[in-house]
Amino acid sequence: MSPNATDSSTILREERKMPNGCAKGWSSMSDSAEKQQCWKNQAFLKVNEIVGLVKYYCLRAYIVFWHELSMNPRVRSSPFSPPPADELILSADDIFSTRRRRLFFTSIHLLALGGLYFCVTGQVKLYTVLFALAVGTMSSIGVTAGSHRLWSHHAYKAKLPLRIILALFQTVGVQYSIYNWVRDHRLHHKYTDTDADPHNSNRGFFYSHVGWALMMPHPAFESKVSTVDMSDMESDWVVMWQYKLYAPLAAILSYVLPTVVPWWLWGEDLLVAHLVAAQLRQVLTLHSTFLINSAAHMWGVKPYDKNINPTENMFVSVATCGDGWHNYHHTFPWDYKNAELLDYKLNLSTLFIDAFSLIGWAYDLKTVPTELVNKRALRTGDGTRKPLPTAADEARTAADAAAAAACTNVYGWTDNDLPDEDRQMAQIYKKSD
After folding, report:
1. How far is 387 from 371, CA to CA, in rounded Å?
2. Pfam families from the xrefs (predicted)?
3. Who wins on pLDDT, 23 or 230?
4. Which pLDDT value is given to residue 340?
5. How far, in Å, CA of 238 to CA of 87, rounded?
6. What pLDDT, on the 0 to 100 scale, is given for residue 12?
7. Residue boundaries of the structural domains of the chain
């Protein structure tokens, strides 16, 4: 319980026998010594109150961040308080891995603040800033075009050279290995915004944005994660090679090289290069990707399916190279464009895929025909997409809408639950022989 200023003041006066000489106001005191003593007493009580509050909130921060590993909403009053009877009991390995992730996230954010300081004060070279932006864009494309559209959803196919490039780009982002990323993302689509969803937005912005990485997952997630079909990932040697060597690859590609290159090529200070091109760059791209699970599940329009949380969010699309058109994506997760837009400025990952399709490295590009998009938008959309529904369209039954909403819970082209209508109507460009 938070310290009470009145109780604390009373206790202190009783323990120290301090006269409350200010009860009648300063005008009642004629002697200057008494006035000075009263001022000291009041100052001491105020400082004591502030110290008590600081101790209280520091303790609460410690409990939430370090002690409450399962993040039970009934936070204990102290680390020594007895746990609730139904609190999740964690193993020693669970405690170690959770605290390790929390320390990692804390350290990279503190170091990123140092990089931000160098940028704000102008102590970094322009080449270093441009280099950091380039590396950050590469890592974002590795996630969006690689682990997301290629491996999670099989929205297109890629030849070996492009798969290696995307695997290296994805490693730079330090967002778990491709194998783990795909497993969690497929579960996210199958059980969107439920307890089995690792990024459940119904638990609030903080949890869906970053909290899921700082605490133990919900038991519902643990019960479903083993049901995800990962045989296709296990048969891809590029994915398994990256999985086995992920830690050293991530350290070299995300931290060592971005530090050494600016220092070696244009004489940047080594510390500045590390804090700006490695730490600050990595934290910014990390939060950009996290916005897909948080902001893009909370704010925006729903032109394709109003029955789900994901929305169309232009800001997130710019921040993630094209992955913020989330209402469309959850409605048609197997579309390689990840959106209905053809504007590359808001979808750099699509531009990347299309560019490699010109040389044959990307092929079997699957997309949704306009007819199918219109049909779905008229049936379940919120009306923000043109053309607007006609009276006949609005008369469709609730059963049709419910059935259409249920069709969104697929993770991609290889999901057996993908409706036959969608599979038959899909348009596939650059088809393989």
Report:
1. 12
2. FA_desaturase (PF00487)
3. 230
4. 85
5. 40
6. 38
7. 92-372
